[in-house]
């Protein structure tokens, strides 16, 4: 039995078993490898994608539970907030190893869609589940503020 | 171009039109070729017909910014347009791409820029010289009248891009010693901000890590490993997995280290693994628990050291201290730590016509090449290493036994080379998989005279040696002392009279490994807390007290004093009130001088780490913004571990399983960080590691300043400190 998944604006036939986490369907079956595996238990956020426009951890979300909802990955985010976040990340050279950054960007995009001008406390609270072992956090905070400015302009 | 240099170059695959390639030949001489030759050497840079400059990085990129740095060196001397420069990673080849400090191809010890500084500049300068002479020839003008700026070659009204003259350049012979720029003429080296070469790919999902590699006919493999280090597979039963979706096969590794579980996807292998049971022979395993391990370390520092690490011995200094006006004693305990980079270990091995190709974020390409070749009984040159981005390392991938590559090679061999293999570690595998920073217990007794000056320093360490038994042993271990165990103590820049250091080795079959900053990560913690304690015992300011032990007539002492003063000034150290929560620490490592000031406060009775001020002198700052990023990141990486990380054992089994119990630093923990770089034209030194060593001591000293509680046992949260 196959499922149909709406990913990045397309309907994709899925052959993975229905209890397979969305993360592994995206990575191994659909070759959307920008979404990363870091822990498998929703404690690092490297696997963050948008489900109906909201940041979610794909490593603990069975693909069968996605249903009709629309999945968006780092490869095709294009909202105003997403573009501002990517631009700010590049301006400030936030990345180091880069492995967590897709997840950081997906999470930050949702933050800015909820709060156009978040303060440091809001940033810390909303981004706290996204781990970065390179500890680029100082720049992530600055880049979220910068993205907020870009969106205002 | 002579036949000799022509045949030394490899044909470069996908160039646009004719390309110019520049590299060292096997005699270490700069040589040139075009890509339509059949030569057999790889270059440091390539210039395509469309003007694209490709820098071939002999060092891998784990986030430390080396690919940007190497590109900067070439682009500077070449006067290239930064936007036209891209970076590819070099294949495995010791003769061409060795780290000039290690004599093997590898990245580590914060040496990437230091060992490449002249080599990559010369490659760029040589190419520039060829382009100038090629343009002169094409235009019939004097080469001395030609200028290059931002990728544009100009003479009077004539101008050309690099690609336009690359073809002519390949017909010319490179000069033996190209003229390098003077520092005053640098336009890219030292520029405050130059966009990282990996910034765009790492923000749009296209950056390729080994975890992302997919090749035809590939099986996904996870391993069921022995729970105790040194345990061997006795039996296993895979019957429970036979109906699991996507499960293909389970086979014992030939070295009995575990069971390879083959499946048609990563998750299918992870799922099947849970359904497979095994029994283990623990007769040679380390089944000790953390408490027993700690007790053994404590006993070792309580006994006579096995190896004296200084000319003066501990008994002599101990006798000298018998008339000390005051003794300052402390015992430090530092736990095992895992590296836990964001990308769990993995690699892909696929068959090629003559052997295999390994896709990996490869930190020591020629060591991995040899290790895989040995397992597969191939000639090393038939093991191709394709290096891709590494999702962090912090030392984990620089592994002289190439553990995960060897596992993948064994899994590949078991399937007789009929399938490509992708080996994936889970986070649980990563935390349980050994190769930890060793536990360290240090006992320090310092005698002060009536003026508060050190008259004798006794320092006993017990730790597992990292270097013994590795290819680096002959370089680093002398008279039984593994220098990496005592670095930062025996070679401190403080002029301490009568310092005696003694080491005892803790032994276990569990492999130890360097962790970011190696011994400095532990020893700066002990040294800089001791300096703080001594300053307090002497009733002196901690910064002034440190400075009073430096010989500022000496270059190193002078540079160290400068960063100490700079961090004090920028942090407002001398304007602070005692008890406001300021802590100071400074350390010299990887030829770089760093001083840090931590500022903490109490929030609801818990410690909030508010700010770090960092001053660094790493010689000439090639990419100042990358250096700032490395200081920020090293402080954060160090703080996370010091606050709450430890790998502990119960009956030999690791107690931590995943991030929830090996909690990374989070954004809410991260202080504001201000980095101040000393302007310098000295040779470049390390940047990736030196920011870490002072961080823990600065934090501990700040907490003491605020609360009066002295914390010498790590992690802090296990020993009574709560963080906001």
3D structure, described in words:
The complex is a heterodimer of chains A (153) and B (724). Chain A is α+β, with helices and mostly antiparallel strands. Chain A folds into 2 domains: 3-76, Beta-grasp domain (Ubiquitin-like (UB roll)); 80-152, DNA polymerase, domain 1 (Orthogonal Bundle). Chain A has 5 helices and 5 strands. In chain A, helix 2 (80-91) packs across helix 5 (137-152). The mean pLDDT of chain A is 97. With 724 residues, chain B is an alpha+beta fold. Chain B has 3 domains: 3-185, Aldehyde oxidase/xanthine dehydrogenase, molybdopterin binding domain (Aldehyde Oxidoreductase, domain 4, 2-Layer Sandwich); 210-283 and 345-424, Aldehyde oxidase/xanthine dehydrogenase, molybdopterin binding domain (Aldehyde Oxidoreductase, domain 4, 2-Layer Sandwich), CATH 3.30.365; 290-337 and 436-719, Aldehyde oxidase/xanthine dehydrogenase, molybdopterin binding domain (Aldehyde Oxidoreductase, domain 4), CATH 3.30.365. Chain B is built from 18 helices and 30 strands. In chain B, the strands form 8 sheets. Chain B has a 7-stranded mixed β-sheet with strand order 11-12-9-19-16-17-18, sandwiched between helices. Chain B has a 5-stranded mixed β-sheet with strand order 2-1-3-4-5. Chain B has a 5-stranded mixed β-sheet with strand order 14-24-21-20-15, sandwiched between helices. In chain B, helix 4 (112-139) crosses helix 5 (162-169) and helix 14 (520-537) runs parallel beside helix 18 (693-707). Residues 1-17 and 35-42 of chain B have low confidence and may be disordered.
